[in-house]
Amino acid sequence: MSADEIGYQIALQEARDSMAVGGQPIGSSIVDTDGNVIGKGHNMVMQTGSPIFHAETSAFHSVLHKPRSIFEGTTLYTTLSPCSMCTGAIIFFKVKKVVIGENYHMSGREDFLRQHGIEVVVLGHKPTQELLASYIENHEVDW
């Protein structure tokens, strides 16, 4: 398994963990240049009522009390293309690469990330697309 596959599988497990506790199935992980997972999280908007606890911001939040420089050069894995807020955080924290599971259910920020020198890979991961499609179909109001 490649480093990207490992990092993405952690993000996907975070998405499943979120759904298991009543949240939206969106997950994220952050891996440093040595291949170490330094942060992970999932969407917790439904669980906390906070509009800012998206998967990516939760992954950043999981690395509390560390210097901001810990994120420089990292790869962020996310099951769904990041929103504008999370895109801003990715740029702010100087993430080097973003690997996106799917961008069918949300897209549009990939070019903005690239404009800021960030490598973007969209996997088009079918199991993730199916997981999100099923969630949206069964929780239309929450989506």
TrEMBL record:
GO cellular component, as recorded: cytoplasm; nucleus
UniProt-recorded Gene Ontology molecular function terms: cytosine deaminase activity; diaminohydroxyphosphoribosylaminopyrimidine deaminase activity
Stretches assigned to the CMP/dCMP-type deaminase domain: 2-121
UniProt GO BP: cytidine metabolic process; cytosine metabolic process; pyrimidine-containing compound salvage
Superkingdom of the organism of origin: Eukaryota
CDD domains assigned to the protein according to its UniProt record, in alphabetical order: nucleoside_deaminase
Pfam families: dCMP_cyt_deam_1
InterPro entries given in the database record: CMP_dCMP_dom (IPR002125), Cytidine_deaminase-like (IPR016193)
Protein name (record): Cytidine deaminase-like protein
The organism of origin for this protein: Myriangium duriaei CBS 260.36
